[in-house]
Design a protein that fits this description.
Length: about 775
Amino acid sequence: MPDQSVTTSKYVLGLDEVGLADAGSVGGKAANLGEMTRLKLAVPPGFVITTGAYLETMEAGGIRSELYTHRVPDAVEGPLLSDQAERLRGIVLDAPLPDAVRAAITGAYHRLGDSIRVAVRSSAPAEDAADTSFAGIHDSFTNVSGDDAVLDAVRNCWASLWSERALSYRAAREYGEEPSVAVVVQTMVSSDSSGVAFTADPRTGSRERIVIEAARGLGEVVVGGQVEPDTYTVDKDSGTLVEMHLGTQTFQIRGDSAGESREEIAPAAQRHRVLDEGMLSRITELATTIEKSYGAPQDLEFAIAGDDLWVVQTRPITTLETSVQPTQTSEAAPVEVLASGLGAGPGSASGRVCVLTSPKDGDRLRSGDVLVAPMTRPDWIPILRRAAAIVTDRGGITCHAAIVGRELGLPVVVGAHNATTVLTDGQVVTVDGSKGVVVAGADEHDRVVAAPATPSAGTGGSRAGQTATAIYVNLASPDTAEAAAALAVDGVGLLRAEFMITEALGGKHPSKLMGEGRRDDYVESMAEGVGRIAEAFSPRPVIYRAIDLRSNEFANLDGGECEPIEENPMIGYRGCFRYVREPELFALDLDVLHRVRQRYANVHLMIPFVRTRWELARCLELVDAHPLGRDRRMLRWIMAEVPSVAYWLDEYARLGIDGLSIGTNDLTQLVLGVDRDSGICEDLFDTMDPAVLATIDLILDRARAVGMTTSLCGQAVSSAPALAEHLVRRGITSVSVTPDSVEQTRRTVDMAERRILLEHARIGDRPSE
């Protein structure tokens, strides 16, 4: 195995030196590869060229400021967009490469091996994040060998920041930060087969299923949509294969020392499944391990060479739906199925067919048309934004365009084989991306979509089915604020600032950042993000939870060696007590809220992990001493995570606390004495345990008695209807859940409220004795 160690520099880092906290400087792809390397998974050895190398090269070439002016893409399409992209790419490719950058890259390459074949892959900071994948938007290159070829591939990765598809994608996602990109260089795996695994079904949202796509040869035929791969659906708990769809693959791409070549596959071999039971089981185990490590559904890519199974990428699933309403059809008028394939983007939409064979003809597609094509690669992005739905002859549910189509909220059907021949221009059809079919005519329950519209920020979406118990949403990023605000929600019950904080800190410990004189930069960055959320939800309330990173999480930041070493940080130096000991840390949150509330008065403060009266009193003194403290319209909330809160509620009310939010995970942990992160004791961790419910009841009863607003933030309320009904019966004011659980939670709460009303009505109707 080639040497994976790489001498650390500001331009180059080994994959074993980076992790998720470094995403800002090495991009999402590299950060995830580094995280998996730390988990001792089989990751091909390599290194990452940091975003700093790109930015310094652009700065040295005198073009960084010009590129910065185009960070928010112009609202142009067609030839104007093409000309703009060509010019920007050209100036990036012409930028001279500084000697220090060149030496760092070639030195790291030689440490992998002389003239070794490598994959050179783009890794942007916003790529493979929780809410944006940038799937296939930036360029990657395989089977690259030699110093000059590697350097050329790196330059082309940099230039791909300014392609038509990248400009269009950033515009669609309203991404306004300065674009930058890191580059991953890894030893090539000569794949006999490869593919993609989703640890949740992207078509239905089911967390109980793993969906695996595989094809022969290199994986670009899968993610690029060049073939219809095999699709295997596996039950996550038992590992049982529950569904198998054999694809159609007439050729494969192989790589060797001579480069890549296309090989035809014999007809007899085409009829055989790509993955046998043994390899399918290994991939399922690998996918499950990665999902557990990340604590969230993952989309991962794998490669198989001989008996070796390699993981070459993972990222959060950005388009997961919890449930999809099937297309409604009339029993009296059976639908005519015109084409069928794999459902790759849930939902349905109607529109007029526009058959395109090349993105060059994209100006023929009008807003609201159904795009029908042989396959759609990432360079179709400028066109996809106008489509109502996408149908392709080839490709699988994990191809780049299918992922992007789901991110744009479009129904997608791939692998329909003959769609471009059986569907004709101008024909009105309905595309059902859940069932994987295209039917004749417009669905009477649907509409001919005029454009793939995005709800206006601040409208609050449809208020149909409003409940007396408010439904709030949990948020962690401003990038999802507009979409969440368009849902039928009453506000943000928990703004988890930790995710925004780590990004604003740029991987540095707050003490180090402030020591470098960059305090104002942090406050400005945080205020901008919180302000975006406040604007999207205004006038609905946004409850901002102050910094609650634990000592072990702070220790992972640059400069974090000052953190104490604790045996159990989960119940250690955190929350309210830490603010009392480090008022300068708490002042960062106060500065952020003070700046935001000068424009948006709907943002309020929540103090986490409150244990005792004296520490809360001291913490509130810090608030009162700050200019924010003079703003008496700002509500002051606490998290109810420690059982002692039930005892102190009367005193907390006297101190001026307006509301509380019950954190079920921490509360369950402390009531039952079970480490919430312990896999050994997970059978004991049960929010529905009578002791936990009794504690919640006590908190709600005492809070109501002193006039406090009450909420509960946690997935338990959306996954356990019995808990939701229990909370409603106890008079909780609101519940706060993730955006994908809003509709299910509102239905559950609505049913509980109706049952309670019905019970009271029946009691009132009983004859008196």
